[in-house]
Amino acid sequence: MRNRLLFAFVFAIMLSTCSKNEEEVVEPIRDIQEQAIADDVALQNYLKSHYYNYKDFENKAYQGEIVIDSINETNSAQLPLSSQVEKEVIRVRTSEGNFIDHTLYYLVVREGSGSSPAVVDSTYLSYQGSLLNGVVFDESTTPIWFDLTSLVRGFKEGATKLKEGTFSVNEDNTVDFFNYGRGVLFFPSGMGYFSRASGIIPSYSPLIFKINLYGVKQTDHDGDGILSIDEYDTDADGIPDDTDEDGIPDYLDTE
Asked: Which of 51, 128, 153, 254 has the most crowded CB, counting CB atoms within 10 A?
């Protein structure tokens, strides 16, 4: 009986210790403004220490991939990304209703020749998503249609910086694309998944996306004859409008 009591006592201590340890590893959600600053520092350091194969793209016929690599002693003459990217400050609305500025950095390798998408449009594109450490977490080398409203803020805002291309249909029904937009997006976690981990993406991760934009289709999600862009976010707060406050965003509301 004594041994059983002793075992029960030790087991109870172990459970208590485990519970405390589990409680200790639960990290409170970070302050979004402080995280935006930290992410921007990380992004700027990355852009200063990496370059892409811009010399290949001086040949307008080049169809190879956009390749990003780190700058070191052997290639120190390469132009860093920091001298080639453009940036835009995006207001991100918090759950408390405040606005925090986040900086989107984007590299236009080739602009494209057609129309640019709005943040609500459907886009035909291929992409590769990676972390700052180079780990690729998602990609599609075959173009697919994406409704930009379903994507994270950084991707949908960044896609608008490119233009679609043109195409021709071959006798075997395959399609060739020409003069399409190509670029890279670099944005902070507040425009991505922020505190949520997603797959192999850790929480609070700035993200990088390489994009080839082949086609754009303007959308009218609710079929009311008004383009979604005119109903989606007229006050530019990043949140879909809901004028009648019925819980259905205007661009999806048929009433």
From this structure: 51
